[in-house]
Amino acid sequence: MTVTESKPRYKYVGTRPVRHDGLEKVTGRARFAADLNLSGQLHGIVVRSPHAHARIVSIDTSKAEAMDGVKAVITGDDFPAVDPSNRNYDMCVNIMARHKVFYEGHAVAAVAASTRDQARAAAAAIEVAYEVLPAAMTIDEALAPGAPVLHDHMMTKGADPPATEPSNVSDITRFAAGDLDAGFAEADLVIEREYTTKPVHQGYIEPHACVADTGQDGHTTIWCSSQGHFNVRSSSAAMLGWENTRIRVIPAEIGGGFGGKTTIYLEPLAVALSAKAGRPVKMVMTRDEVFRATGPAPGTKLKVKLGARRDGTLVAGDAYLIYSGGAYAGSGGLLGAMTVFESYNIANFGVESLNVVVNTARSAAYRAPAAPLTAFAIETMLDEIATELGIDALDLRLANAVAEGDPSTMGFPFARIGFTECLEAVRDHPHYSAPLGPNQGRGLAAGYWFNIGESSSATVNLNEDGTATVVTGSPDIGGSRASMALMAAEELGIDPLDIRPVVGDTEAVGFTDVTEGSRATFATGMAVVEACRTMVAELRGRAAKMMGTDIDDIDWVDGQAVYTGSDGDKAPLSVAAICAKAKRTGGPLTATGSLEAHGAGPGFAVHLCDVEVDPETGVVRVVRYTASQDAGTAIHPSYVEGQIQGGVAQGVGWALNEEYIYDSDGVMENPGFLDYRVPVASDLPMIDAVIVEVPNPAHPYGVRGVGETGIVPPIPAVANAINDATGCRLRNLPMSPVRVLEAITANGGSDG
């Protein structure tokens, strides 16, 4: 279902062609990083710490080096020393520990051998002596008086007064507007609530994997699955102390990322092992390693206070947000501060947000980082306010929703946005007024993500037969190949299936930032459009030569050069006709586009969730779900719907089941999909995705990123539905059967 605001009519944009990589994906022919095997390759295995916090006393690799098949062993000593003042310090010491380990699973050594079994045996033979240190596993433990300080160099950025002693608070972010005290004095209703959430994993199916082949000339080639191979190049170079030009990165297909593959863990290790052994080295994480040693979304403690007038107008908001970034400084605090009040007009607000380090794996991005957790707080509190004031929950949001011209948290005015349209789409949907059954409840929640632009490049090549190749630097993690082809087709006027979209390696296309922040279709799409428009200008010029006229007499219409001059009629020339004569009119037809994209349109979504709660067991079952989201313009509606539905599925899992569980020694107890419970198809209903199209004025086709906004509303939507079904307001994630049953048993309406 699509709700469109005065959408221009396009020939190709907005259609649903079969994705160009679809056949290879469904037949198993697509090549992922773990599928690559090179002649003479070795297998790499990482040795990881069994302790959450310990000093490395010694590492003895002699037994491992003497074992059959072992060709190389590395430790932190094999990499350049890195100073804490270096901006890459956290990344480097996270990939390979130096002197201390900061979480169970922290890499301390790696070995390459002829077979995986030999490599495993050698890894087990490496002797590491540790001095175990006290660990701080939670936010409360890290902030407690006398807590073990993880990093002696960590002085809190943003502290007022400035920090003079190291602590576990890496930084503090503050935003404010208006007069908070006056705002709360104006309120007829003030509520204050606290929330806690646990770290959760992105749950991508494909584990991290790579192959590195380092030659005698000192250059290396890396094949890997990632969300940004240019980032793999620069990060690996920083870790190795190399120039970027020594590294070529070839992107493999990617089996899921969701933000978790925007960083690296294996690639520099594989390069170093390969350089030492003189052979290619392949490294593939086990699922256990993925959970223990890669970055989950952070856990949080949130304290939020809201004030409203009797008519529902929000007049004041105060938020104190704490994000656990794992063993190294994270970005959750900043992003939480940017998103907590962003969806609503609140004249008086204050936000203080902290990033705290704890002895768990360093956190990484996970779709709209930090925003789902602030939405959990704000959107459940809005439901409480609506109930207290006797106002419909959707009407309350409509009355306070930000619109064009309203200031954002950062003080910049919003351009054209579609939040109100998303609310109206849900209000007008049959789901909104459908009857509920026994033990069922309905929850509404909204969500926001700001989206980003950054750098992108694209090259368009026309072939001799008039078909095209579009080369970009954005890994395809959600159907962006098809989006690139559709925009190129619209510009060039040729069928999208006559366009081959290719993800080029770091030596085949211009620099392109990571596929993150919902930027690929927006920013890289702009680069494709720029390249195509340059190409159209060249095609007009070639056609003018062929017709013996001036370029000003040539228009480009529906894939043809059309003569508009007054000197008689000249037959139109198709792309194929112009390409066939390219050698005679100037040579190959190629064009590039490179830009730093600006004007990323914010994304808004509104979700409606029905649940059924078993009062005897506390089990929550989602029975109906409708999600509206502003896509700006849906370039390929099927993949927009897929992004929305995928965000819902992950958000429901986050709400109901998922969490990292550690024992008293800081060892993870559920590092696998058997015990770390993600939703499967049988856990979810069909998800009705409603695409709202309010075009982004800063994009040639009105695109807004859609990949992240969809995961923001599900947690509060589920929480509000549980409250509607049971009268119990749960404020601690996950809302597992145990917690739901405890709340029901304690008394309807009790906090959980």
Structure description:
The structure is a single chain. By secondary structure, the protein is an alpha+beta fold. It folds into three domains: 33-134 and 203-293, Aldehyde oxidase/xanthine dehydrogenase, a/b hammerhead (Aldehyde Oxidoreductase, domain 3, Alpha-Beta Complex), CATH 3.90.1170.50; 370-449 and 601-746, Aldehyde oxidase/xanthine dehydrogenase, molybdopterin binding domain (Aldehyde Oxidoreductase, domain 4); 454-597, Aldehyde oxidase/xanthine dehydrogenase, molybdopterin binding domain (Aldehyde Oxidoreductase, domain 4, 2-Layer Sandwich). β11, α7 (229-240) and β12 (247-251) form a beta-alpha-beta unit. α7 (229-240) packs across α8 (267-277), α11 (371-389) packs parallel to α19 (714-726) and α14 packs parallel to α15 (520-547).
Helices and strands in order:
Layout: E1 2-4, H1 22-27, E2 42-48, E3 54-60, H2 62-65, E4 70-75, H3 89-95, E5 100-101, E6 107-113, H4 116-125, E7 127-132, H5 139-143, E8 169-177, H6 180-186, E9 189-197, E10 209-214, E11 220-224, H7 229-240, E12 247-251, H8 267-277, E13 281-284, H9 287-293, E14 300-308, E15 314-324, H10 332-339, E16 348-356, H11 371-389, H12 393-400, H13 419-427, E17 440-449, E18 454-462, E19 468-472, H14 480-492, E20 499-503, H15 520-547, E21 554-557, E22 560-563, E23 573-574, H16 575-580, H17 582-585, E24 589-597, E25 603-613, E26 620-630, H18 637-656, E27 687-693, H19 714-726, H20 737-746
Parallel strand pairs: 1-27, 2-13, 11-12, 15-16, 19-20, 26-27
Antiparallel strand pairs: 2-6, 3-5, 3-7, 4-6, 8-16, 9-14, 10-11, 10-13, 14-15, 17-25, 18-19, 18-24, 21-22, 22-23, 25-26
